[in-house]
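re: the backbone from monday

yeah here it is again, tokenized this time
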């Protein structure tokens, strides 16, 4: 058996083809991955997964919902076969799992009270995270979200960690925090139809003075490079044909979120 952390080829793909079923880890985050009213996996990442796994000869896609922070531990523990949750690629995660190339690139946004009383994100020359820090405002974000690092880097001390964007929206409505930070599509989806809150304009977060690219993709165990490579090959076919955008458009994704970045760009 290889040492912990060793990248291997693996034979999981062949076993999944034989069984005809793959388990995907999701985090119940609209629009990235969730279970719909019919009990089926739905959202941006599961929609991509269904198409690619069908091409790979695997017809049945079974969702396994866990907390976002449990996705990588659950993958390592073999509770599911792949993380299908729009997970951002970053160096810490890249050291633990094998990512496919990202299937989207996204800016951040904030849920704020209707009217945006603090004017967050309205100054193009001011990073909203630094604005929150300088004004001593209260910020919330989701458990294990990349936005935690952005907030801490900006010097925000009043940071509340909540389970997800639904809890974040409630915290803003109740006045427990001044804003909730998440990806642009997550925030836009959360505030839709709610006249008590709104989304700020999308903005580029920074980390250590450099742009922090919110590029997400599918994650595989380190022992399953063959599986990752086969998935990645099908993903690029969807990108090249334009079908990827058609698949994810119903979930609020646009041409602006499509990207040619690779895992090598994000996993030093």
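seq for it, each position gets an aa:
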């Amino acid at each position: 058996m290889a040492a912990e952390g060793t990248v291997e080829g693996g034979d999981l793909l062949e076993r999944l083809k034989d069984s005809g079923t793959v388990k995907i880890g999701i985090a119940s985050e609209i629009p990235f991955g969730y279970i719909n009213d019919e009990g089926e996996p739905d959202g941006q990442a599961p929609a991509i997964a269904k198409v690619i796994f069908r091409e790979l000869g695997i017809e049945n896609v079974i969702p396994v919902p866990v907390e976002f922070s449990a996705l990588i531990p659950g993958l390592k523990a073999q509770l599911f076969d792949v993380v299908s949750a729009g997970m951002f690629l970053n160096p810490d995660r890249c050291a633990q799992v094998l990512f496919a190339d990202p299937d989207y690139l996204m800016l951040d946004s904030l849920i704020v009270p209707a009217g945006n009383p603090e004017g967050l994100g309205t100054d193009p020359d001011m990073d909203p995270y630094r604005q929150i820090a300088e004004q001593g405002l209260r910020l919330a974000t989701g458990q294990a979200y990349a936005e935690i690092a952005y907030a801490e880097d900006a010097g925000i001390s009043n940071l509340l960690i909540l389970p997800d964007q639904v809890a974040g929206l409630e915290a803003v409505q109740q006045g427990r925090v001044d804003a909730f930070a998440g990806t642009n599509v997550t925030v836009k989806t959360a505030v839709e139809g709610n006249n008590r809150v709104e989304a700020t304009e999308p903005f580029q977060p920074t980390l250590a003075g450099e742009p922090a690219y919110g590029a997400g993709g599918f994650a595989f165990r380190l022992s399953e490079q063959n599986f990752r490579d086969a998935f990645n090959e099908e993903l690029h076919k969807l990108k090249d044909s334009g079908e990827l955008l058609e698949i994810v458009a119903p979930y609020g994704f646009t041409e602006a979120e499509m990207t040619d970045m690779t895992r090598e760009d994000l996993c030093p």
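Residues 225-241 form the longest helix (17 residues). The chain has a mean pLDDT of 95.
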